[in-house]
## 1
Amino acid sequence: MIVRSHLVSIFCATGALVAVLMPRQAAAVPQYARRFGITCYACHTIPPVLNEQGYMFQKLGHHLPPALEVSRPVERIIDLVRKEREWTIANNASFAVSDFSYQAQKNTQQGQGSTSTSAIEVGAWNAYFGGWLPDTNFFYYSEFDIVTNGVTSPNMPNAHIGYVGGTARNSWYGIVGREHLEVSEGTRASEVYSLLPNSPLIFENQGPTNFILDQSPVGAAVGYTWASSMYKRIASVNMKVTDGDNADGSEILGTSSKNGKDIWADADFWYAPESGVSVITYQGKKSQIQNLGLANQFTYNARIRREGAFANYMIGRDKVDLLGGYLHGDDDWQDPTTQAPGTYLTNGGFGEADYYIWRGLALASRYDRLRQDVTGGLHPTTLEQWQVGAEKAFTPMGNVVGRIAGGNSHGVDPVALTGSASRTIEADIQFNF
Amino acid sequence: MMNQNVLWRVLLTASLSALLAGATSAVAQVGTHEDNVKLDVGSYPVDIQHGYKLFASKCSECHSLTPSLKQSRSAEGWAQEVRRMQAMASSHINDREAHLITNFLVYVDVHRSAAAGDTASGGAGGSPEQAGKQTFDSYGCSSCHSVGGAGNTSAPLDGIGSKETADALKKLITSPPSESSMPAMDVPAKDLNNLVAYLLSLK
């Protein structure tokens, strides 16, 4: 009882603190908004969920998509470059992006009773540099993480340089360097970032290799984007070839003997306002260490495949967004005990409804379901998750956003065949300056 | 012993309501935040008020409303600017809305310049239309034009306000078409704005 009332008071205290700390007016804004004198909503339905303009901004190499009209000549990328404001550090860097989070979780494991945990942490403290090289078609983007998941561990997950050519209507880009999935890769339903603190289950796939779609590879990407007048339709195809990543997404640096090669391709289609479809495919081959550090440790070179389709339909103007996605996984697998080769199949889907009450406030609810079938397992198992939550921006600019969500998940581990359930309440708040 | 379901429900409800409470205060703040540009919306004609509402909601999505309220453009210039905003990705502004917003911006532009002219000329007092009437008289327009039968009735200007836009009027006065026998009148900007406001009131 004491523990619980303690929980309640921590929670209320966080709420109160959040309310007190909210600045009335943002003192500073992230670099892109600063550069163009616009609010975050120009590119985000609610930060950091990108809208069509934000998507185009990314595809045009960090230049604002100009007005596209039938009656006007289409601007070339270099015209956009020439229109750019003067290069300054302030409009190319975002110095303090921080994320505070609170999580309370109760887990019930079959045959083991239940445990409760709660934690408040400084989730992330990052600096971003992103912009264009003055008077050229080159753009760059890099991210320095100082604190990640509450731990101070400086690293640089993103560092790439790109070139964008063509016109605002028909553009292409090439990028080399190191990159995580950015906030958006594809249309709304395939964005890894969600209004809920946990992104859809299928993006953090449960395969034996713990392969996650958000990797940090080093490689090259190319893409082509087409937009119709008034951006009523946008179509884009993108491909990425990378090397040097562990199967679990950790990085291979230095003299690792592990190896990983990946190809990623996606095709996106947006239709105004804000609806879209994305199809993706991922094919990779990565050495996978099983039973790491144990006497029976062994390595095998697993093939990892993902195929998925995602769609969203926005009803009204930024009112109700219905999203759904499906991802099929087919990975090589070797039994940890017998080393017998086999396959690990996953079929995952989610459905989500987001309700944008007004600018800067949205409610979201999502259902996730993942079927997993492993060679040697007794039967396919299912993992289900429900979540409801809200996201709110606390400044007119939209650069301070908080999220809160409650969820429930339960399922059976396809290998150990034990059931577990958990309930979670999470809240986080992000400051972007 | 408190039921755990109840606990979780209480937590969630409490936090959601905290969020919503925060939200309501923020909305009022956005609505009133106009960076020292004062608009007396209540005094505008109904369709202009409608235009204002659309402007305030649609045009604040991506940036502050202030530049639009401070900048000066011709009617055609505003139509183009609004059209340009409309043609941006994610702007969600349809043609009807664009039209109403343009009318509002032109109206505010004309009236603001007129008001500015007022103060600049020592605060003649009264409305821009009244100041414009004085300008009309002082520039000798009535030697060739009449209003309501007063002046030279060979070129009456009655009803001109419903025929021409602010921009067209400015042009007609300062650089009339070469085939016209109307002389180009060298009227400084602040007087011109008052004059146009006056002519626009002749409906």
## 2
Amino acid sequence: MTPPRSPGPGPANRPAPQRPWHVRLGAALPLRYVLRRLAGTAGLLAVLSAAVFALLRVAPGDPARTLLGTRSATPQALAAVRADHHLDDPVAEQYGRWLADALHGRLGTSIRTGQDVTAVLGDRLALSAQLVLLGFAVAVALGLPLGVLAGLRARRPADRAVQSLAVVTLSTPVFAGGLVLIYVFSLMLGWLPAYGPGSGGGGDRLLHLVLPAATLGLSVTAVLVKLTRAAVVRELAREHVTFALARGIPTRRVLIRYVLRGTVVPVSTGIGLVLAYLLAGTVMVEQVFALPGLGQLLVGSVTFKDVPVVQAEALLIAALVCLANLTTDLVHPLADPRLRTAAATAPADRDKGQA
Amino acid sequence: MYVPARGPGGPTTPGTLLEVTGLRVVADGALSGPEVVLDGVDLRVAPGECIGVVGESGSGKSLAVRAVVGLLPDGTRTDGGSVRLRDQEILDLPPAARQARRGRGVALLMQNPFTMLHPQLTCGSQIADGLRPGAPGGPAVSGRRVRRAAERAEVARRLAEVGLAPETADRYPHELSGGMRQRVAVAAALAGDPDLLIADEPTTALDAANQRAVLGLLRRLQAGRGMGLVLITHDLRVAFSACDRVYVLYAGAVLEQGSPAELESDPRHPYTAGLLAAEPSVHERLPRLPAIAGSVPAPGRRPDGCPFADRCPHAAPVCATPGVLLRPLPHVPAPAAEGHQRLSACVRLAEIADRPGALKGGAPLPAAGPAKAAPADGAPAPVSGDPAVRTAAAPVPALLLEGVYRTFRSGAVRQAAARGVSLTVPQGRVTALVGESGSGKTTLARIAVGLETFDEGRVEVGGVALAPGRRPGHGERVRLAGQAQIVFQDPYSSLPPLRTVEATMREALAAAGQIRGASRRERAEWTRDRIGELLTQTGLPAGCATRRPAALSGGERQRVAVARALAVRPRLLVCDEVVSALDVSVQAQLLNLLTDLQRAEGFAVLFITHDLGVARQIADEVAVMYRGELVEQGAAADVLDRPRHAWTRRMLAALPPAAVGRPGPAIGPLGPGEQPLQ
Ligand SMILES: Nc1ncnc2c1ncn2[C@@H]1O[C@H](COP(=O)(O)OP(=O)(O)O)[C@@H](O)[C@H]1O
Ligand code: SF4
Ligand SMILES: [Mg+2]
């Protein structure tokens, strides 16, 4: 065929070199936007903290009695607690003091044990964080590839198989799933320890966390599978994918660059949500596997009405969820230029299709 | 020569770039089983030739070309026929071999510039993705930096080819206008230097100025590269102005083939003739546009034999015999160039071609002046003749705009959409507001019905004055709703998708506080009757009431939108580009309907359009808007025959000859007394 005859790059048409990466990053994530998101997150946290603070006030009964716990409620003891916690001050003032203390890491003392709440949390935080991260790794490592596979093979046997598995894991309660795993891998095969955090160093801890993390991760994998599958199916049907194929771009390249690229925003939103689910999931998993983590502590504290601990935990979880949210918000404009707030050059002419 | 034999294996003519023979496509419906969507389509493209494929939407144009490139949508598949590209059958090739052929052998450019490019990739990288390995800048050059630089240079060259600046490479599609996006898409489609480019409605989503520019660009590139071009369009004017040869496709079959000049001056199929006649002329207002009745039948509901039979005014029992084929014209000597043979699929051509006025050379219908157009059959005559007298008798105009300003601000950019516009729409008359897109027509329309605020000036809608700088309050909105109603361009998005037609209309009646009756039952009854009356008035079957918009065709939806607007008997109907998304035959139906309704009910119309032919057909008066200002205003005939403003002159001069020179009604298949066989 005849080679194309197109005008060469004349002086007016010389390509400008591509802008360096930090300029492009700045354009994609303007400082103003980052600051605004940070401020938004802080505001959200303030609202949540007020709600957490209100926990004690809305709990039935006299707050002083609640704070006394099982100790005998003599008038003197009550008065002491009142003075200690400034319960007679105006509510706003109480909240301010409580918040200032919380920001300095002073979360009060546990009613149940009399220990410093910060210290109680600190021990357990590490274990729960390891559990959540491992569970998250399991969910992402399984959910994303399976979701992509199901999406690419939509309505074919592979898709049906993946979807059926997803439904099974989704509809299995965490305790049941955990027990099945314990039965198979600890009792029958004897490969992995059944419960406890382990006593040795990192390797032992990891071994002990495999089953809990698998249980936790599997409980949310289905959500990721479904989300990813839906996103892939939607992207595959896009006209730009057909156009990419129609101009001869190799199929593999189209799948990776055009189809998967388009799923980043919905899937990353899903991942953010899944993190929140995982935090909530620790409660059950730590019970089943006898792990002394935050979840177990939460259950104990709630049953015992150990309000300061519950407050501290609620605050921590809220902060983590907000953080996950913030991360997604910052990832989105990187992934999708349409979500960038920087005022783009206004289109010169408007078209019928938009008007 | 007779038509090429159906089925694969027919001899190919040497020097053919693309030869499609007897292509069949079926859709596997979930409930109904396979339905034939394309029933034996034949197309041929010689190297360096530009052919057009025209037909109403739903005719199967898109499926035909997607079958050719092997990218049929889910649920459809080819079922016989042959597609030969440079003498090689490609329907039998394995998927990988077909994919390798795309981009170099044939590339497909799609309709919508807003969805065709990936929103998250820069324009430059999307062009670069299609470059051939081995070509300068293609992936074969060694060395990452050298390769990157070569690629950027090549992309800049490709951008220059379509008339874009090199900076465009780093832009994302959403940062560009529709016309620019379509150019980027053209550059991307041509990145692999295909022998054949298929463009599926490349200009439909663009405004008039961009349409011409993109069409010109495609033709220039095609000529420069010696490439074959298949141009798919539902717009006859576009096909006639750009193509060497045109195929008329209808309900999955090619009905006629010939050169633009032949098809235009001497259509040899009633469908082509009908399409041509339905096109409004800018020079003459007809009492009625000769519209083709009905709409394209869905794949499962096509008649046996000639697919056009249920809409054809000349249909006879013989037309129902199966196997209606495209055949050379009787009495027409085979021309020297074999590719330019005239073909028609009408079996009764010999009989009807002799009938005067059937397909050509008929006596034109009586032309009517814009002000005293003859009343349509049965419709009451206009209220009064002389506009001046009527204005004196009814001093309150339907719409009064005086010195209206409206400026939009987005960041630092200020866009003046209306700059001191003064416009009066008298009671009971049709005023067309014309102008290119972005000239402020829609803003003005929205101000008139209280959907948009204005900065300063005076706006009165049938005596209801609107205050500048704020939206009307609830009470004002109710009063306004009784005075003025609006119908929008896009019938797909202006109706609530989850509501039945009946619910939508009931809501409109309730919003204007017009439901009458003492008891609940009486009110329900009144509403039902009124809705039935409105549906009949707008030519919709009664069964429509319980349907949702998705179950209606584009034309039907627009009728529902009109019925909804008229439900409250407004004194002013604002129509914003209501026909520009419709096919020419459906457009003619809707224009006729609006004219009838307007004459019967006597409301005023502010009709916004960018199409001067449409304006001529519907309007008594024409106002021309240019960059936010009203630059010209007067009786339709005065403005369009003796334009004074430069923009109006330019628009009239730019009209393709198809819309100007053709004697409008001469080829109407539906004469005054003729009724289609239903
Ligand atoms: N994916 C599909 N599955 C089933 N039927 C389809 C599909 N796409 C289009 N059709 C049907 O094929 C016919 C032709 O459609 P299309 O090729 O889009 O027409 P055009 O491009 O001429 O407007 C229509 O009646 C439509 O209902
Ligand atoms: S006359 Fe018969 S064959 Fe010809 S177009 Fe009409 S219906 Fe079809
Ligand atoms: Mg189409």
## 3
Amino acid sequence: MTEPMYMPKAALENLIALLRGDGYKVLGPVSRDAGVAFEEVRAVSDLAAGVRDSQEAGRYRLEPGVPGEIFGVVNGAGSLKPFFFAPDENLIEVRREGKSFKSSEVIPPPRRLAFVGVRACDLAAVAVQDRIFLHDRFRDTHYETRRKDVFMVAVNCTRSAPTCFCASMKTGPEATAGFDLSLTEMDECFVAKSGSSAGEAMLERLGLRTASAGEAEQARTLTDRCAAGMRRQLDTSDLPRLLYEQADSPRWKEVASRCLSCTNCTMVCPTCFCHAVVDQQEIDGNMSRRVRQWDSCFSLEHAHIHGINFRPRIEDRYRQWLTHKLASWIDQFGTSGCVGCGRCITWCPVGIDLTQEVAAIRASAIK
Amino acid sequence: MTTPYAIYPARITERRAETSGVYTFTMRFTDPGIRRSYRFKAGQFNMIYAFGVGEVPISIVSDPEEPEALQHTIRIVGRVTEVMGRWKVGDIVGVRGPYGNGWPVDEARGRDVVIVTGGLGCAPVVGLINYIFRRRDQYGELHILHGVKTPNDLLYRERFDEWRRAPRTRVYLTADRPDKSWHYRIGVVTQLFDELAVPASSVAMMCGPEVMMRLAARAFRDKGISEDAIFLSMERRMECAVGLCGHCQYREYFACKDGPVFSYRAVRELFRTTGI
Ligand SMILES: Cc1cc2nc3c(=O)[nH]c(=O)nc-3n(C[C@H](O)[C@H](O)[C@H](O)COP(=O)(O)OP(=O)(O)OC[C@H]3O[C@@H](n4cnc5c(N)ncnc54)[C@H](O)[C@@H]3O)c2cc1C
Ligand code: SF4
Ligand code: SF4
């Protein structure tokens, strides 16, 4: 990592132009459907600037923000997940050849994606998905192809949403890995850092000067203050053991009485990876596609096999979800499945909050 | 790059009806290179594919020393297996695998072996029994326990009778609800455990309903068999078989890549609670 650089706000325009010139499709938070989504940005004016999000359990609004602030929205329902782990994609095509058939891989077309305005928690979530799709026993070629040629511009959080708890999950608010450039937005400028050789080269092309000690200090203070002021917390001590031991906690029944099993939490979660593998035959019968589609452990079919559903009750499914996120994920992949982005809290129609559920289970732990 | 989802065509060379709705197919990869390089271990499974319809996990029941002629016993239970039941000799079907860890046949060598199955019978267990019979001198006493609800549920009746006549082998059959044709024991499979006398050095392997396995595992532990020497084959929904689709999760395990065979020690704690 190079030393912190002073980056005037106007230089962001330049950065987007340079990335586009390098053949990247640049994506950033854009206002969409009363929220924000990562969509193509051709210029800074495409970004959801000057607005802020107001989030609470089961509630999301965009509100007028601070004039001049470009990255005022902490996050929206969408993470980077769909760009690498596509919600619906062809894996292979199987074509009839006489009596036999031939299966061939459908490789997604090559593309260069640059993301501008990625929060630390979402970068951490990408690392979690990398661990699953790239560094496990089987390497997923589709994920690999989509993930390969990516430029990440992180934005360190100087304000958290009330639903955030990245400090507890040690994933933010400052991005520490997985980016090419990181920016801390201040009133008049950014403080920029590089996290890779590609990022370093980009800083050079932008022709920035080194940030003064005062500017660098101010940037650090802003992220530190954000961490200290984070309202929600999740006590991760004793995980995975706590949730394993509390498999019979009465709290599962209690939360199940509120949970609608709607699957929202799993759809917005940037790390959830469950998917269905479906074969779809063309109408002429000569070709069949194998398609992968996002699935959820809250769906009734998820644990169903020839007449037995291993998780018939909502309490079984909520327990599976929470235990997987915070406990068994650690045993499976050496990392928590939760990065503390708070999306599942915001987008739960009944406002179920996993931090409260863990606290309740902990408080009532049957020793 | 090759996707883990690549499917290889295989030709059906034999179809045998075990009973109504249960068929054993012998299949050979059409590609000579794949056919020669394909290897598997006893108790592993393949994903078997019906063109345009779907793919399901099915155990390999044939012997690992004959990897060029794979056998799969398929019970017709639903959408995909329905189509498989219509497969004829000469049809080309899809196979990818092998997956899973398989039975601990090496660990069990030289020891007495207890095999327990229940319900509608378990194809993986038939493969295991055949495996041991083909290497009979490498294993000690063999005890086969099988419980069914009604006599109609007993598949492979002739095979059980054949196994019963083999030396150093005991077969225990029981039915909850017998009829006149039934000349074996009456009652649930767990009653068989009481009369079973096996040394603590035995290895137990089982497959069937989880309640049955839970009771059997406890009974064997009470007979002094170590929790590391009691093995259970778990069935879970699998859509990818490569540890990615998430369906076969059993707390920290993926049944497809960490199983389907688990030691009782590994899953004992999970057995305490239902719905995991
Ligand atoms: C490791 C393993 C080994 C198995 N070995 C054998 C065997 O040797 N012989 C045998 O007859 N059966 C075996 N099975 C069971 C077999 O996979 C299911 O019977 C089959 O998937 C049902 O598919 P279907 O489309 O005919 O039924 P469906 O109509 O699709 O469904 C019937 C039931 O099967 C479930 N199911 C559907 N797709 C899958 C899937 N991909 N994986 C698991 N369940 C699914 C459905 O939820 C439903 O409950 C094994 C299963 C596992 C996990
Ligand atoms: S579990 Fe909730 S807070 Fe954690 S990463 Fe997923 S959506 Fe974000
Ligand atoms: S979003 Fe809320 S209601 Fe929907 S499945 Fe998740 S916890 Fe249950």
